[in-house]
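Box 3.1. Reading complex inputs
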Amino acid sequence: MAIILSGKEGKIAERVIIVGNLGRMKTITSMLNELETVNEFAGYYTYTGKYNGKRITVNFHGIGNSSLALITNDLISLGAKYIVRFGSATGVSDKADAGTAVVPIGYSYNIGGFALQELGEMINFAATGNLDLINLLVDSLKKSEVKVATGNMFTSDSIHSHDEKFLQKWRSLNHLAVDLEGAALYFEGARHGISTGAVHLIYRNPMTGKSMSQADIERTEKEISKSILDALTKL
Amino acid sequence: MAIILSGKEGKIAERVIIVGNLGRMKTITSMLNELETVNEFAGYYTYTGKYNGKRITVNFHGIGNSSLALITNDLISLGAKYIVRFGSATGVSDKADAGTAVVPIGYSYNIGGFALQELGEMINFAATGNLDLINLLVDSLKKSEVKVATGNMFTSDSIHSHDEKFLQKWRSLNHLAVDLEGAALYFEGARHGISTGAVHLIYRNPMTGKSMSQADIERTEKEISKSILDALTKL
Amino acid sequence: MAIILSGKEGKIAERVIIVGNLGRMKTITSMLNELETVNEFAGYYTYTGKYNGKRITVNFHGIGNSSLALITNDLISLGAKYIVRFGSATGVSDKADAGTAVVPIGYSYNIGGFALQELGEMINFAATGNLDLINLLVDSLKKSEVKVATGNMFTSDSIHSHDEKFLQKWRSLNHLAVDLEGAALYFEGARHGISTGAVHLIYRNPMTGKSMSQADIERTEKEISKSILDALTKL
Amino acid sequence: MAIILSGKEGKIAERVIIVGNLGRMKTITSMLNELETVNEFAGYYTYTGKYNGKRITVNFHGIGNSSLALITNDLISLGAKYIVRFGSATGVSDKADAGTAVVPIGYSYNIGGFALQELGEMINFAATGNLDLINLLVDSLKKSEVKVATGNMFTSDSIHSHDEKFLQKWRSLNHLAVDLEGAALYFEGARHGISTGAVHLIYRNPMTGKSMSQADIERTEKEISKSILDALTKL
Amino acid sequence: MAIILSGKEGKIAERVIIVGNLGRMKTITSMLNELETVNEFAGYYTYTGKYNGKRITVNFHGIGNSSLALITNDLISLGAKYIVRFGSATGVSDKADAGTAVVPIGYSYNIGGFALQELGEMINFAATGNLDLINLLVDSLKKSEVKVATGNMFTSDSIHSHDEKFLQKWRSLNHLAVDLEGAALYFEGARHGISTGAVHLIYRNPMTGKSMSQADIERTEKEISKSILDALTKL
Amino acid sequence: MAIILSGKEGKIAERVIIVGNLGRMKTITSMLNELETVNEFAGYYTYTGKYNGKRITVNFHGIGNSSLALITNDLISLGAKYIVRFGSATGVSDKADAGTAVVPIGYSYNIGGFALQELGEMINFAATGNLDLINLLVDSLKKSEVKVATGNMFTSDSIHSHDEKFLQKWRSLNHLAVDLEGAALYFEGARHGISTGAVHLIYRNPMTGKSMSQADIERTEKEISKSILDALTKL
C-alpha cells in the first residue's frame, strides 16, 4: 500500500533510481526520454522516462533510513523490481578516497530504530544488495573513468556524531565509507526479495584529507549516472 | 557545526518553526514580513522573516528522526533558542480525533537508532518539550477555534508497519497519536537545553474512522500557524 | 487488583500524595483533618484525611521503581485519579541548587527492569507527567518562597553508582537532578491514563557544593506540602 | 560508603539477616540477646544482637532490587561478610508448594535496570549464592520440620504483571518460584565477593492452588528463623 | 596471536578452505598434492597441500560461531588472505532446494554473543563476503552441474530451535537457508579486511520436503570441492 | 529430537561426562569397563561404558556455547539425567591459580546469541548447576590431592578478545576463571530440569603468572577424572 505515491499505480517502472539530492536527480532525468512527472507531493519528486528503450523511474528519497524506507516500500508496492541508489558518502578507507565510486556489498547500521520496528525483534539482519545488480553496476562503472571500490559501508543515523573517533572506528573495522540511508535500501530489498544496488560517490575523505571540487563532482556524477542507466537497462 | 546550513551564520532567528510539508511552510511564510530566503539546498528550505516585530525562521525538516535531528542540530548550532514544530499526525485516542491539535508533553520512540548513536549507550532518554513553550502554545491555541489535547505521542520509524495491532497498542497505552519525527525534536531540545514545542494537527483517526477534508485542513492550518506565531512571539 | 492495599476499596481518595520518607509523611498528614489510618501493613503506611474539604490519601512508596510502581498500581486500581509525589533529589544542574523545588516534565531512566517486564518489549516509553497537574503545582509553588525549576530528571536504579562521572553526564545532558523512583510514577500514570505530578526538594547539589540544613529542610518541606495540597484541591 | 546506614561504623555484625517484612523481623529479633537498635531512619530498621554468642545484625530491605541493593551495599561497606535473606515467594513448581522453604542457587532476572547501571554494560551476570552458606542453610533446615527445595528462582520487577502466562513460563523453564528482590542480593554478593544465601517460604502456589494459613506461616517462620540463625552461627 | 594453531607459522597458505565435516575434508584433501599435516590438536585438523601449483590449507572449523571465529582468527593471524568455507545448510526458500549450492552474499545472525564481545557494542555489523571471491565461486560452480543460488542466509546459534515457525520466518524474509557458523566467517573477514566466501550444499529443504541421498551428497561434494579449488587458485 | 546422536536411542547412559579435548576423553574412557563406541560422526565422539557397575557415557562437546548446547540437547533427549563437564579454564582470581579445580556454581555470559534464540527474549537467565551434584563433585575432589574452589565463572564467546582489560574486569567482579562453553551446559540443565555440574582444571592464570606443566596436567586430569566418576556413581 503506497503512502507518498498513493494513486500512482502503473506509473512506476520496474527499474528505479533513487537519489537524495535534487541536482543529482536532474543529472539523471536529463538523460531520459519521454519524461513524465509522476509526483511532486511532500518533496518526494518522482519522474518516469525512458533510456535505451526501457522505462526508468527516478525518485527522491530524503535523508535518513526512515525516509528512504518509506519511499522504497512505496516503490516496491507499485511494482519496482530493481532499485539502484545513487548517493554520496564520506570515505574512511584509503580504498575510498575522494572521487571514488563505492558500490557496497552490505551496510552495517545501528540496532533498533526502523529495523526493530519492522521486524518486531532485534536481530542482525543482513542489509545486502543483489549480486547480479552489483556486478552490472561495477562492470558498467569500470568502463567509465571513475575508480570503483566494493565492500561494506556504515549507515549512520546522526551525522552530527561523526567525530574523529567515530571515523577511525569504522576505518579500523575495514569499512569503506559512511552514509545516512544505505542500510534501509538493502534491508528493504533483502526483506522483500527485490534487487537493490547502490553507487556512492565519495565527496571527501577526512582520513586522506582529500575532497572533490564542485566541477569534479558534476562531471563525475554525469559519468556515474550514465553507468547506472546502462547497468539497469542490461537487466 | 552546521551541515546543511553551513555558512548561514547570522541568518537564523532565535525563534524557529519547522515543518515537513511545503504547503504548510507556505501557509506560515505568507504570514511573515520581510521574508528572506536563507537556504534552498538539499530540499531543506529555510526562510527568515518577521512577525509582531520579531524575527522568525521557518525550516523544512524532512521525514524521519535522522532528518529532523540533522536540521535541528544545524539550527541550534546557528543560534536557535525556541523551536516549534508544526506537523500532522494520526490519532489513536478518542481525545485526538480528526481536527484536534495535539501538543505533546513527550514522545515514546524506538530504542536504538539515532538516540543510541548520539548518546553512545541505550537509555530511556526523556524526549520532552519545554513547559513554558508548551503552555504558550496551548494557551494560544485555546483562543482559536481548534480543539486542543495534551499528552504523549509515539514517534514511529516505519509508517508501513502501522497496522491495526500497532495502533491499538499505542491507544491502550494512552498515547494520543503517532508521527514520524517528533521524538528527535524533543530529544535534541532536552539534550542541548533549548526550548522545544510541537503542534500536530490530526488529519485522521483510524479508531474513530474520521478524517479531515482538504478544505478543513487548509483552514485549520492557517489558524494553527497564527497561534504558533503568536505564542512564539510572546517569549 | 490491589496487592499491598488489598481489601481497602473505598478508602483511597481520588487525590493522592506519595512520599518515601516518614518524616515528610507526618508533615503532610499533620495538615489534614479527619485523618484515618488505612494501612500499616508491610511498611506501606496509608492515611486518608481532608484538606479544603476534599479527601486526600497519603501513602508511603519505598525506595526504587519497583516499589513505587507496586503501590501506584494499587492506588490506581482503588480509584486514585491524581497522584503527586513529594520527594527529594540530588541536583546536578545550576538551575537545581540546594533548596530548589524541581517539578519534572519527564524522567530519563535505565532500559530494561520494570518497564521491560510491564510492556513486554524494550521501547523508549515516555515517562511524563500531566500538564494540568504540573502547571497547578508550579503555580502553587511560585506563590510560596521556594524557588521552582522545571525540566527533566534521571531516575537511577543504583545510588551507589552515583560517582562524579555519572553526575557530570546527566548535567551535560541538561537534566536537573537525579532520584530513585520518579520514572515509575510518570510511567504508570502515562500508561494507565491518570494524572501524575511530582515535586522534588533538592537537598544537595554536588556540582555547586551546596546542601540544605536540617532546619531548612523541615521549614521548606512544610511550605511545599502546603503548596501540593493547595494544588491538588484546585482540581 | 554507607548511605542509609551512614555513621553506623562498628554497629553492623559480620553475620546479617535481611527481611522485607516487619513481622518476620520481630520473629528473628525476639530470638536474639543483647539487642541494640542501630537505625530506624527511612524505614530501614536495623538491629544488632547476639545468638549462640555471635553478633547478628537484622535489617529491613524494602521492596524491589534497587531497595535491597542499596541496603546490601551499605551493609557490605560496613563490614558484613555473610548475608542471608529470609523472604517469602510465590511457588510455580510442584517442588515448591505452599509451605516449602526454597533455598535458591541462583536467580534469573530482567536485563537492564540496576544491573546495567552498576556494571555499565548488558551482560548475563550470574546472580548466585555462596555454596558453603547455601549448604549450611539447607542442612539446618533439613533438621527442622520444614520441607526444603533448591534450584533457581525468578526475581520480578513488577508484581502486577504476574499473570497466568508469566507463571507458566517460569514453571516451564524449571524455576521454583518468583520473588521481587532476590537477584539483587546474589548479584551484589557475587560482585563484591561476600557470601550470600536466601530462604524463601512459599506462601502460596497458584499452580497447585495451595496457600498457607496465617497460623502456619507464623509457626513455620519461627522454625526457619531458628534454622537460619543456627546456620549463620556455624560459620 | 594463534591459539589452536600456535607455533604453526609458515605452515598456513594464503588460500584456505574450511569445513565442519571430516568427510568433506577428506574429499578436498584427496584433490591436493604434496599434502602435509599441520595440526591435529583439539580436533581442529589442518592440512596444507597444493592444487594447480598453488598452496592450499584445509582446516576443520567445528560447530557454532565461536568455534569458527576462533580458528578463523588463528588462520588470519598466520597469514591467510582468502578463506572459503564449504558447508552444508538447510534450505528454506524454493530457490534453495535440496542439491542446490548456495553462495551467500551475507548472513543475518543473532545480536549479542561473539559479535558483541568482539566489538564491545551492539551494532548490526554487516557479515558480508568479498565480491571478487564470491563471483569466482559462482562462476566456477556454474561450470559444474550443480545449481547455484546467491542471496542471504541466517546463521542460527541453536539448531534445536529450528521449528516450523522459525523456518517460515526466514523464508518469509527471503533468506535462502540457515546454517550454524556462516556469520562468523563473513564477520571476521569483513572486520579484518581479508577475503571470504562460502558455498553451502543444501542437504534438505523442509519447505519443499526434498532431501539429498548420501550418494548424491558425495558426488556433488566432489564437484563443489573442485569448483572451490579452481576458484581459489584463479586469484 | 537428537541431531548428531540421531538413532542412538538406548545407547546413552543417565550419567554423562562431556569433554572438549580428546586427550581428556581418553583419560576418562580408559577408566571405564565394557566400553562401547556409540558415535564418531561429525567429530562428536561418544562412548558408553561402566564404572562402579553403573553405565557412564562420555561425549565430546566441541568449542563454544552453540556446540556444547547442541550435544547437550541431544544427550538430554536421549535420556541423560546427570551431565558433568570436565574442562579446562583460564584463572583470573588468586583463588583459581594454575592447578586448581574450579567447580562453578554459575556462569556469567554474553547477552544474545544462543540464549536469546532459545528463549525468544533477552533475560538474565540463571545458568546454575545442580546443588547435589556440585556437592558430590566438591566432596569427591576434596578427597584427592587437587585444590578445589567454588564460585562463578565467565563463559566467553571469543577467546581472541581475552586481553588484559578483559581479564582484570572479571577478576574485579570476583569471578574465578573464564572458559568458552560452561554457560551453555548450566543453561540447558536449568532450563530442562536435569542435573549438571562441572569441573575446570586451571591450566594457567595470567594474573599470578603460573602455568601447569604438561606432566602436571596429565597427572591431575587422571585424579579429577576419577573424582568425577566416583561422584557421578554415588547418585
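In summary: The first strand of chain E starts at residue 15 and ends at 19.
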